[in-house]
Amino acid sequence: MNTKTLLSRALQPLAWLAHALGPGLRRLWAHAHLASGLKSPLHRSVVIDGPVELHGTRRITLGQRLYVYPGQYWETQAGGALQIGDGVVLSRGVHLVAFAGVQIGAGTMIGEYASVRDANHRRGAGGLRDSGHDAAAITIGRGVWIGRGAAVLAGVRIGDGAVVAANAVVTRDVAAGAVVGGVPARPLHQHHQDAA
Fold first, then answer.
1. What is the dihedral of CA 86, 145, 97, 135, to 10 degrees?
2. What span, in angstroms and rounded, lies between the C-alpha atoms of 106 and 160?
3. Rounded distance, CA 162 to CA 183, Å?
4. Is 121 a catalytic site residue?
5. Is the separation of the CB atoms in 74 and 55 below 8 Å?
6. Which of 31, 33, 43, 121 is catalytic?
7. Closest of 74, 72, 194, 76 to residue 142, by C-alpha
8. Which of 23, 67, 116, 168 is the most exposed place for a label (fewest CB within 10 A)?
9. Higher pLDDT, 55 or 128
C-alpha cells in the first residue's frame, strides 16, 4: 500500500467523527458567536444553524425556540430595534434592517432571501449615499408566513395569520388572515386560520 492510501485509512475515523459532530459543533459555535455580539441575552432554546452578520447598534431582542438558518443579515441603526418573538423561523439569507423598528410576532416563518427593511434612502444634493434615510416601523403579526424572496417595506403592518407570496413586494398593510402576492402585493384571497 502506498503512503496516501495508508494516511487516508488512518484519517477515516477522524473524518467520520468530524462529520458526525459537524452540525452540532457548528450550531454551538454560531450560538456562542451570536450571544457574544448581542446586547441582550440569547436563550439556549434558540437554534442558530450558521453565522449571523450583525451591523449597527445591535438593539436586538430574541424570543425562545427560534430556528435561524445561515446567511442572516441583521442591522439596527439610529433608534431602531429588532424584536423577534418565540418560535420564529428565519430561513437562509433573510435580511432584517431596523432604523425605526421591526417587530416579528411569535410563530412567524420568513422564507429564504426575504427582506424586511423599515428604511429607504432619501434623494438629496449629496446623492443617495449621503442623504440619510426615511424610516417607519414594521410590525409583522403572529403566525405570518412570508414566502421566499419577498420584500416588506417601511411602515407596513401585517396582521396575524397572513400569507405573503414568494417574491411579493409589500408596500401597504396586510389584513389578518389575508393572502397577498405580486408587485406591489395585492390581496389574492382570505384563508381561515385553525382555531387554537
1. -110
2. 10
3. 17
4. yes
5. yes
6. 121
7. 194
8. 23
9. 55
Does residue 78 contact residue 101 with C-beta atoms inside 8 Å? no
Q: Is the peptide bond before 23 cis (omega within 30 degrees of 0)?
A: no
SS (H, E, C) the chain: CCHHHHHHHHHHHHHHHHHHHHHHHHHHHHHHHHHHHCCCCCCCCCEECCCEEEEECCCEEECCCCEECCCEEEEECCCCCEEECCCCEECCCCEEEECCCEEECCCCEECCCCEEECEEECCCCCCCCCCCEEECCEEECCCCEECCCCEECCCCEECCCCEECCCCEECCCECCCEEEECCCCEEEEECCCCCC
CA–CA separation, 169 vs 49, rounded Å? 27
State pLDDT tens for residues 117-153: 999 888 777 777 777 788 999 999 999 999 999 999 9
CA distances in angstroms from 109 to 12, 40, 85, 144, 152, listed in the order given: 39, 22, 11, 6, 13
125: cell is 444634493
Cβ atoms of 153 and 168 within 8 Å: the answer is no
Are 156 and 138 in contact by the 8 Å Cβ rule? The answer is yes
Q: What's at 47, amino acid-wise?
A: V
Within a 10 A sphere around the Cβ of 167, how many other Cβ atoms?
17
Q: Is-contact 70 49, C-beta < 8 A?
A: yes
pLDDT of residue 192: 56
